[in-house]
Amino acid sequence: MAIFLAISPAPLATLPAGNKIISTPVTSFAKSGGLRLIPKIRIAKAAKRSFPVPNSFSPKISCSLAQPETLATVQTTIAKQLGIETCIVAPQTKFIDLGADSLDTVEIMMALEEKFGVSIGEGGAENIATVQDAADLIEKVMASA
């Protein structure tokens, strides 16, 4: 089996790099599987990123009003109302992510009012998106009563 090496100055690889175009010769050589092209590319300048780089460390600051007992009761009530396990209902979980539609959210709020013996009203329930929001609203209503 013979191995051939051929360098041809004629073929060029052309790549745009910003405002500059770089042309370099392409080297081809024979290997046991056949010819294979290996481009030699010289980078003139670094390209700008067109996508955001995710931050691996993003601290979450929580200004929750709810006591841990209230939050646990809210989580249990929501899980029973939606027919899911309590471990799925985390404080930062949105009702939409739990599969709740607007009717389910109204039923959850009515169950929470009944459980805690408070009246939330429509205005307060409209701003609730997460489990933590619901627990905070319950604590706020209980404190003002």
Automatic annotation (TrEMBL):
Keywords: Fatty acid biosynthesis, Fatty acid metabolism, Lipid biosynthesis, Lipid metabolism, Phosphopantetheine, Phosphoprotein. The keyword Lipid biosynthesis applies. GO terms for molecular function: acyl carrier activity. Residues 68-142 form the Carrier domain. The keyword Transcription regulation does not apply. Gene3D superfamilies: ACP-like. Carrier of the growing fatty acid chain in fatty acid biosynthesis. Belongs to the acyl carrier protein (ACP) family. This is Acyl carrier protein. It comes from Kingdonia uniflora.
